[in-house]
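Checklist before submission:
- one chain only
- standard amino acids only
- sequence pasted in full

Submission:
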Amino acid sequence: MQFLDQAKIYLQSGKGGNGCVSFRREKYVEFGGPDGGAGGKGGDIIFEGCSALNTLIDFRYKQHFKAKKGTDGSGKNCNGAKGQDIIIKVPIGTQIISDTDKETILQDITEDGEKVFFLQGGKGGFGNTHFKSSKEQAPRRSNPGLEGEEIWVWLRLKILADVGLLGLPNAGKSSLLSAITNAKPKIGNYPYTTLTPQLGIIRNYNQEIVLADIPGLINDAHKGVGIGTRFLGHIERCKILLHLIDAKSPNPLKNYKNIIKEITKYGKGLEKKTQVLIISKADLVSNEELKVIVKKIEEYSKSSVLVSSSINKIGLNELIDVLFTKLEKLDNENNNKETKEKKWSP
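Returned file contents:
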């Protein structure tokens, strides 16, 4: 399945039905009063979160969504039927962005089954029965239905995952994802093998962790170079960042500094997230070289550093244990914080 994380679409809610001008025409009723019904309300535009979807690719082939018009009113005080709504299903994590500035978030859909009534259909017009009064017994006027709303918007998907994989191109993220999860990403010994975000799940008894692998970042990714801002956006919602540093690269410490610089300049809280640092491709360097790399990065980052090899299965179990432990700790801290913030009320 193709992955698409943003799309532009046109939305239009339904027009309200027109009111009806009608009078009773029955045998033995000499002066039949007004009996024109009101028009039906136009259809609404509704968004619904759907966990079965993980891409916006469907919106590449259909960009226009127009709800149905409300039915016109008719005689015998029959009101028109409401126009059919349009329910647009989107992946969880989809943001609805204003087309005006491409930044303003109009809605953010984060739960499965969550429904957002985005555009209201136009109200139906009144029939002539509505205008009957003591002064006007036989009104011959009605209202037309109101027009629906219309707007162009951008849909932007930001993946929901527990752990986001960070690193330069060809750092070994896809290999690690394949080694510790059920995902089967494309793997190659060259940069930019991964061109779209990939998801994988680690299961441990009744627990699971969702990992998101984004394409490798390059210099000035925070400015959008190599559509880096879109890639970084996918890990904004992650609880932990798993930072891979290629042991075989000429300067692993410099690579680490470059990624830290990019996420710091990008902002939006990425630099404050809990990070797990891990040296990848440990099987390609000697133990002496590995010790030097680990020491340099630990001294600079003031954090412990793990070592792994996806090919030889080195350090993978330790990594999984660390991820589950850190996530459990974060969840407990968040639960305690929410409990303290709740105010007592009688």
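Reviewer check: The chain has two domains: 1-157, 163-340.
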